[in-house]
Amino acid sequence: LLSKALNPNLLQGLLNEKPLPEGWEMRFTVDGIPYFVDHNRRATTYIDPRTGKSSLENGPQITYVRDFKAKVQYFRFWCQVGLMPSEFEWLNRYFVFMHIKITVTRKTLFEDSFQQIMSFNAQDLRRRLWIIFPGEEGLDYGGVAREWFFLLSHEVLNPMYCLFEYAGKDNYCLQINPASYINPDHLKYFKFIGRFIAMALFHGKFIDTGFSLPFYKRMLNKPWALKDLESIDPEFYNSLIWIKENDIEECGLEMYFSVDKEILGEITTHELKPDGGEVLVTEENKEEYIRLVAEWRLSRGVEEQTQAFFEGFNEVLPQQYLQYFDAKELEVMLCFADLLGSNGPQKFCIEKVGKENWLPRSHTCFNRLDLPPYKSYEQLKEKLMFAIEETEGFGQE
């Protein structure tokens, strides 16, 4: 159905274009005709800023959809028709059928995964994954890979490694830590994490935790808004709104185009523009100050880390393949996913299996929980908690 709805050649041409200039966004009319929004000048046009050609010349190129589920279906289809290595259909099918093996131990999960993912050609990471935990007999029909994505994301995104940090005191979404440079290999790790996150999206797996709203917008190449600050630093956002709505000269505020930042206990001054430390903020230029200080708060010294992340990300999944999603939809796609078995989406079910002295068992590939015939709720709770807290690993029957 999707192959009939989309013209792969037109789609490929659309997606093969280089990224849009900064501040630009592509949208679609109800008839499926692309148009372009220039947020810098607050203007719209049918002229593609990358090619100078009008999208009206070719007519509708892709069906525009608002439904999230349909967007995900289109995205999966685009991954298949746009990211395969060959024009020959039979070779594409062989490429998908082939799998790559990733062998990791639970104790050295981070380093094992880093070494292997970075050793593969990025294109190979789009093939079917076959995750192996040595000493565990589970066959990976989806469940083992799902656990690998969950466990590894918990490791690599853990603020303990100083690569990421929580967005705020009461906000446990993640953003890049400007102090990550204390690890001399931090840029290599960010490139690895970029590949890993792209793999999660490409293979339809979910991760343990999510990123901040501005980071999702950066993944989508969408312009940030002042309102985005509220989600990560409400106090800072409210202070900027106060400056915007009040006469700072009447209040006697003395501010300059510079800010102090603290990294690992060291306080330094960052100028928001050349010689900003000597430029006084006035009623006349306060809009520029608000824009620059908000931009600094959203990026604040993580440009190299961000570049390394997206270098790895784009090797596996070019960012333009995500351009039809908004930030909230991307968050849902990355942090939640349908539970898939070997025959597609599987409903969760509970089976009565075994004897009273058995422990519960889960079949992660098929979303099935086997519960023995326990005689009381207390016994069920005891056995279930023991199985959850005291055991890990995969086996096969």
UniProtKB/TrEMBL annotation:
It is an enzyme of class 2 (transferase). The keyword Transferase applies. Pathway: Protein modification; protein ubiquitination. Residues 121-397 form the HECT domain. Its EC number is 2.3.2.26. It catalyses: S-ubiquitinyl-[E2 ubiquitin-conjugating enzyme]-L-cysteine + [acceptor protein]-L-lysine = [E2 ubiquitin-conjugating enzyme]-L-cysteine + N(6)-ubiquitinyl-[acceptor protein]-L-lysine. GO terms for molecular function: ubiquitin protein ligase activity. One of its GO terms (cellular component) is cytoplasm. It comes from the Eukaryota. The active site is at 365 (glycyl thioester intermediate). The keyword Transferase applies. InterPro entries: E3_ubiq-protein_ligase, HECT_dom, Hect_E3_ubiquitin_ligase, WW_dom, WW_dom_sf. GO terms for biological process: proteasome-mediated ubiquitin-dependent protein catabolic process; protein K29-linked ubiquitination; protein K48-linked ubiquitination; protein K63-linked ubiquitination. It holds the Pfam family HECT. This is HECT-type E3 ubiquitin transferase.
